Amino acid sequence: MTDQQATPLRRDARRNREALVEAAAELFAQQGLNTPLDVIARRAGVGNATLYRHFPTREDLIGEVFATAGSVLAEAGEQALAGEDAWAEIERYFGRIFELVAANRGFNDLVTMAIPSVPALAEMSHRNAATVTALMVRAQKQGTMRLDVVPMDLLFLLGPLCRAVPAADDLRPGLWRRYLALLLAGFHTRATEPMAEPPVGEEQLDQLFAGLWEAEG
């Protein structure tokens, strides 16, 4: 086979790969990381064999789709660490993360689930923990955060709340801001700021948890 004959095949393969990544990005954002791979292949207009040729495992595809996710969080972390008021930066940093997970269910899965087989994601998790630790230590020195809490306390509580964000946002866009503010207030030495959002009713709470169940199913 000549170079001229081989080139179109390489071009087709590149086009198929790009179509798969684009389709996966859209579907992961809408449905989460457990979106069936055959659905992704159909959205991309290729067969399952083509998908597996480019991405032998789901983790390979996830790693490709979210290759830049780590840099987005890293940039948010760098901006937070550059600020002078540690407490304000903690609020801003987690607000940014929650905005991202509210808009993208795949990103929500990334930051609330462990996927050890995707090294870049593990690195993202470690970097996030380091950022939170540095901000908390600084806030404690500045007198705005309780001295009897540790980074794991905050990360432990934020995980489940973060997981609930897409369902809460379906109920009311921005509802998560109230509960993030409530959670963070428990770590502050003083809690006098008004809540960012009004509370939900009992019926809405049932709807929220039903949405979580459907999302996991």
Automatic annotation (TrEMBL):
InterPro entries attached to this UniProt entry: Homeodomain-like_sf (IPR009057), HTH-type_TetR-like_transc_reg (IPR050109), HTH_TetR (IPR001647), Tet_transcr_reg_TetR-rel_C_sf (IPR036271), TetR_SbtR-like_C (IPR049445)
Record domain HTH tetR-type: where: 14-73
Entry keyword set: DNA-binding, Transcription, Transcription regulation
Gene3D superfamilies referenced in this protein's UniProt entry, alphabetically: Tetracycline Repressor, domain 2
GO molecular function annotation: DNA-binding transcription factor activity; transcription cis-regulatory region binding
Ranges of the DNA-binding region feature: 36-55
Sequence intervals crossing the membrane: none
Signal peptide residues on this chain, from the entry's feature table: none
Protein name per Swiss-Prot or TrEMBL: AcrR family transcriptional regulator
Annotated organism of origin: Kitasatospora gansuensis
Native organism taxonomy: Bacteria, Bacillati, Actinomycetota, Actinomycetes, Kitasatosporales
